[in-house]
Write a structure and sequence with these properties.
By secondary structure, this protein is an alpha+beta fold. The strands form seven sheets. A five-stranded mixed beta sheet has the order 2-11-10-3-9. Strands 14-13-12-16-17 form a five-stranded antiparallel beta sheet, with helices on one face. Strands 5-4-7-8 form a four-stranded antiparallel beta sheet. Helix 3 packs antiparallel against helix 9 and helix 16 (509-515) packs across helix 17. The longest helix has 21 residues, at 3-23. The protein is globular.
């Protein structure tokens, strides 16, 4: 497989797992598997920087939103942490920091001081206090924007509604982790069983689902707790260390984890890791590792950040848990694009309080690599997630009647022909396959696409079963009479759904392109296509050569786009959607830009904190004049716009001879 194709495949797989984890709170692979995928992609992109694109998971923080809550922008991004998995990783972490600090300061540091604390298996939140009063709570979201959940945060009993003590800033933003204790998790699941309701897979999912309830009373009943681990601009109060800031949080009445402590060097980190690991099972909450943070704030500021995480902190993950069980069968599932995925059906086994019945097998190549057969005893890894991975087959225990796993000749759902031309085998029936139809409609109605609320999976399954929906366009022909005939459907919900369907007709071109579900065309690519062509008709007529003129559209993506619009069934479906009244405002495409503007067709990177405008607003202003905004700094970058506390990108830009502009200099050129 060529490098670019492998990179695209990894990006697609990671993005799918991101949606399952961040939006749906239903992860499909373990943390360890995800980290391995992410690491592979990072290494390939570092080795082949010409294939880096702005929509790669490595170039931005990952998440998606429900349509339940108002979206708020974080004043300071809520970044994720890089991961370490063994002693060597933690030793390398300290070595890198020492080398960087000695180089920048001209000093000779041999050992660093850290704060070590449990890596809680919960949900990150931001809580804002004004004049000591709680005024806003928000989820982490994608790191830059989150969902406003103030009413629910107020129900968490160990969060103070007003702060105590002195020296409270007029505005204070606190970061923390919301979790559900093991005891409370068991109680919630017992209640769910008694009420014949779906149980939670694990405490993290339970916390996430409870925190995002529309009714705060439900959140209150779930017994959530929070531990605070930092607050924004602690240096304003002249704290010199992270440890001092944690003690101040306690003084203000905010909950801080009592397991946190100061340690010296990577050896102190490892000693803490081993001690906490031995006590892991007796802790009242789930943890999946330890977090180490450089204690000195000056050193934190000096070492700075990389694109998606601070250099001065790292998460040291516990090894994935292993259990042995029996492989009872293998089922083949069909995804939105027709991909056939084998799923192991296991003899139920309990791992860390969760009963596991399924495991991912990825594809037939993985089955062959494992030499796996039905009836085998297998070792599975699980690291706090729903679906683990089969990692080893115990061939010595293989029964005589073990049988080979055979890929079906036809689609397991619709029995259509399968395409074996790629590593991923696909059903060729398209929307004629009920499984693909269901996944395609789910994508079409999703928030980032046509944003039709009220069409959950159960409802869609019923509509498809009755053959009232055979393609996305059929949604716009549903009647009140049809919907009311469905069991447990009321007049108000039907009215809301029909209104949502009607409102979706007024959309934007890039959202419509994204909703079509073209292979490899995510939100960013859809926006690029809309900006470049300016109208749908030009895109429909585009050749592969013309598509390759667009930045970040490679030959594989171009082929997928051209093939999609060349297919007669897709042409007919697009025409039907337009006939239903779907429309959008005119798009100012690249041909309509002022070609004399200094940022026209220039590649621009933003770094640091902008003071007069948000980062998203800055991006929109640049795109409006024909600029391309990227997260990756390279020789192809034309300008680096530098805000406050810019980090390492400035030095890199200088080494690459990239022109740096202050915020004021940039705005003057606009």
């Amino acid at each position: 497989m060529d490098v670019e194709k492998k990179i695209i495949q990894l990006r697609t797989e990671i993005k799918q797992h991101d949606v399952a984890y961040y939006r749906d709170s239903q992860p499909t692979i373990s943390d360890k598997q995800y980290d391995e995928l992410f690491s592979k992609l990072q290494k390939l992109e570092q080795q082949y920087p010409e294939f880096i694109s702005a929509d790669s998971p490595t170039q931005r923080l990952t998440a998606a939103f429900t349509n339940k809550f108002t979206i708020v922008e974080h004043e300071v991004p809520m970044l994720s942490l890089s991961n370490g998995f063994d002693e060597e990783d933690i030793k390398d972490f300290e070595t890198r920091l020492i080398e960087l600090l000695n180089k920048k300061n001209g000093s000779i540091i041999e050992e660093l001081n850290f704060v070590a604390e449990p890596k809680l298996d919960g949900v990150a939140i931001s809580v804002i206090y004004e004049k000591g009063q709680l005024v806003q709570g928000a989820t982490r979201g994608d790191g830059f924007r989150g969902e406003e959940i103030t009413a629910n945060v107020r129900t968490i009993r160990n969060i103070p509604l007003s702060l105590e003590g002195e020296n409270i800033p007029d505005r204070l933003e606190v970061r923390g982790e919301v979790l559900m204790s093991k005891k409370q998790f068991a109680r919630c699941n017992q209640q769910a069983l008694e009420n014949n309701e779906k149980t939670f897979a694990n405490p993290r999912n339970a916390a996430s689902g409870s925190l995002r309830q529309l009714d705060p009373k439900i959140t209150q009943s779930r017994g959530l707790a929070v531990y605070c681990y930092s607050f924004i601009n602690a240096e304003v109060l002249e704290f010199k260390t992270h440890w001092e800031s944690l003690q101040q949080l306690k003084i203000w009445g905010l909950p801080v984890n009592n397991e946190a402590c100061q340690v010296k060097g990577f050896k102190g980190c490892l000693e803490y890791f081993l001690q906490l690991g031995e006590r892991r099972e007796v802790l009242p909450y789930e943890i999946d590792g330890v977090v180490y943070k450089l204690n000195d704030f000056t050193q934190q500021k000096t070492t700075g950040f990389v694109s998606r995480s601070p250099r001065w902190a790292i998460a040291h993950k516990f090894p994935a848990k292993e259990v042995t069980t029996e492989l009872l069968d293998v089922e083949f599932q069909v995804g939105r694009t027709g991909a056939i995925t084998p799923v192991a059906k296991l003899k139920p086994v309990e791992v860390a309080g969760v009963t596991v019945r399924n495991a991912t097998l990825h594809n037939m190549a993985e089955i062959e690599r494992l030499n796996l057969k039905i009836g085998d005893f297998v070792v599975i890894h699980r690291a706090g997630d729903v679906i683990p991975k089969v990692v080893t087959v115990l061939t010595d225990l293989r029964p005589e009647n073990a049988s080979a796993i055979v890929l079906p000749n036809d689609c397991p759902v619709c029995h259509a022909h399968l395409d074996h031309s790629e590593i991923i085998v696909r059903c060729t029936a398209g929307l004629n396959c009920p499984a693909q139809l269901l996944e395609s409609i789910k994508h079409f109605v999703s928030r980032r696409a046509m944003n039709i609320d009220g069409l959950g999976e159960k409802m869609l399954e019923k509509l498809i079963e009755k053959k009232w929906i055979m393609s996305p366009a059929d949604l716009y022909h549903l009647t009140q009479e049809q919907l009311l005939s469905i069991e447990r459907t009321g007049t108000k919900s039907v009215s809301n759904l029909l209104n949502s369907i009607e409102n979706s007709k007024k959309t934007q071109l890039h959202r419509f392109i994204y909703s079509l579900g073209i292979r490899e065309v995510g939100e960013t690519t859809a926006q690029l296509l809309a900006d470049y062509f300016g109208n749908l008709e030009s895109l429909r007529m585009a050749t592969v050569d013309s598509l390759l003129h667009i930045d970040d559209v490679g030959p594989i993506v171009a082929e997928h786009i051209q093939s999609f619009f060349a297919e007669p069934r897709n042409q007919q479906e697009v025409d039907r959607l337009l006939e239903c009244g779907i429309h959008w405002p005119a798009v100012k495409n690249w041909k309509m830009h002022d070609t004399e503007h200094p940022f026209y067709q220039k590649t621009v990177v933003l770094t640091g904190t902008l003071t007069s405008i948000t980062r998203e607003e800055a991006k929109q202003k640049l795109q409006a004049v024909g600029a391309k905004v990227s997260n990756a700094l390279s020789k192809k970058t034309d300008y680096l716009i530098v805000g406050e506390d810019p980090g390492s990108k400035v030095k890199k830009a200088q080494s690459l001879n990239v022109q740096c502009l202050t915020e004021d200099e940039w705005l003057n050129k606009m």
